[in-house]
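Researcher: Good morning. I'm working through a list of sequences from a screen, and I'd like to move beyond sequence-only analysis. For each chain I'm collecting a predicted structure so we can compare shapes side by side. This is the next one on the list. No need for commentary yet; just the structure.
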Amino acid sequence: MDEMSELTPDDILKTAKSLRWESGGNIHERVVEAIYTDAARIAERAVTRPDERPRFDLDRAIDRVVTSKIWGFPLMVFLFTLIFWITISGANVPSKLIASFLLDTIYPILRDGAVEIGMPLWLSGLLIDGMYLATAWVISVMLPPMAIFFPLFTLLEDFGYLPRMAFNLDKIFKRTGAHGKQALSMMMGFGCNAAGVIATRIIDSPRERLIAIITNNFALCNGRWPTQILIATIFIGTLVPAHLAGLISALSVIAIALLGVFITFAVSWFLSRTWLRGQVSTFSLELPPYRPPRILQTIYTSLIDRTIFVLWRAVVFALPAGALIWLSANLHIGELNIAEHLIDLLNPFGLFLGLNGVILLAYVLAIPANEIVIPTVLMLTVMVTGLHGLGAGAGVMFELESASATLSILSSGGWTLLTAVNLMLFSLLHNPCSTTLFTIYKETGSLKWTAVSGLLPLVLGFAVTFAVAQVWRLIAGIAGA
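Model: Good morning. Structure tokens for this chain:
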């Protein structure tokens, strides 16, 4: 750099002159020849002369289906439904294996080891029953789905499909005042909202990127799928004959996910006309050629850059969450522990919303990770109903193998079909987890927009569950009369 700064204009001209002679006297002809060669190659591929038969172009043939007004959207829904099905089905076995190893093998070893070394009960409870169990649940529930979803999503990206999806959705997002590339970050949010927030970096406009960040929480992340599937299975699936139970349960979960997409459009429209008013930017979307995905590189990149990164953040926040859950269940004020006091405090408001105090407290305690909502709900329900003999101590999270046993515990806690439906809605519409909130703050650098991202879905959740509860009770009252 110092040598270049010492060069005079004459030195530069002399260098340019010498380089020109070194390149040969026909450099201009070679450049022009290369341009015409490229033009001829492009014309040969793109132009059909009157006396020739149309050439078959595989990319164009695929695009006529993928970007079709008739087939484009059904194909998109089918592909992502297939990815979600593969993710959910494929994650069941590894999730159970990891949970079995961490909970059935390592957990007893840690408990026995704590006794052997004479560790105080309160300390072993805090570290093992609290922090370790919460972290074990997060790893067993989060790791397999992310390890499946992110590579599949990246394969679609490598194949060249995701730009076509953004092309299909661009018009809808533009009508809502958002950016067409928000379709990509929204789809990434179905795997993990924190990853979806990071994916908004592809949007150049700060205003439209902020809209994408705030609304990404309405994409149902993998941490909320277990709650949706379990509640749909044990409450909604049991309303129909057994041979239809699986289909109806799956359709109800897909309906919640599609509701999240609709709310994304609605909230984007609201933000673009109120707090984030502005002109919708245009962008040139180049549709890349279809190409075979690089499978090994995709798997490596997805696991390292996305799965491990997001999982690490979730684990960091799960550790203090486990400690908080254990302390709330084991520290007493008078005859009741802190959790029971909080449940009594929240129960009137929860019942008003068609939920209950246990659910609201579980979501407060599970802010660090949505994956521990169901274990926390079961723990708190057993605590307040006085059920025992389930192999769980005070403040110890657990999950049952049998759906009927889970239904029995929840029913003993006063759960009804209204409670189940509103829990599914509230699981979609509530504040983001702490990992996502931290990521939003890191991406925006603003406490204001982080607070908006956390409070806006929570307010919507309260409003929607309240409205559903009132309509439900009104119809039930009319039917009872």
